[in-house]
Amino acid sequence: MNSELWMQGLVAMCIGMGTVLSFLCLMIVAMTIMSAAVRKLNQIFPEAVPQAAGVKKAISSNDEEIAAAIVAAMFKR
């Protein structure tokens, strides 16, 4: 009786793990196919990339304002 339960448990475990493994393999295959399809569609319909017209961002390093903000944050308690 005890060995029968062990055998049923092992069969259920193998069926469950086999189902999960087959689903994961199927999902990997589907993702690979989808990736190839998207790669092919990107070659056919490329996405327009906006070009920057030589605009540079102004980098301001106003150390006095930063220091004042730090001091204000320290004494805010």
Helix share of residues? over 70%
Number of strands: 0
Radius of gyration: 31 Å
Query: Major beta sheet, specifics?
Result: none
| Topology as a string of helices (H) and strands (E) | HH
Count of DSSP helices? 2
Structural class: mainly alpha
Distance between the termini: 73 Å
Share of β-strand residues: under 5%
Q: Round the mean pLDDT to the nearest integer and report it.
A: 87
Poorly predicted regions are none
> What is the approximate shape?
flat
In short:
With 77 residues, this protein is mainly α. 71% of the residues lie in helices and 0% in strands.
Structure in words:
With 77 residues, this protein is mainly alpha-helical. It has a domain at 1-45. Helix content is 71%, strand content 0%. The chain contains 2 helices and no strands. The mean pLDDT is 87.
Per-chain topology:
Elements: H1 2-44, H2 63-74
Keywords for this structure?
single chain, 77 residues, mainly alpha, 2 helices, flat
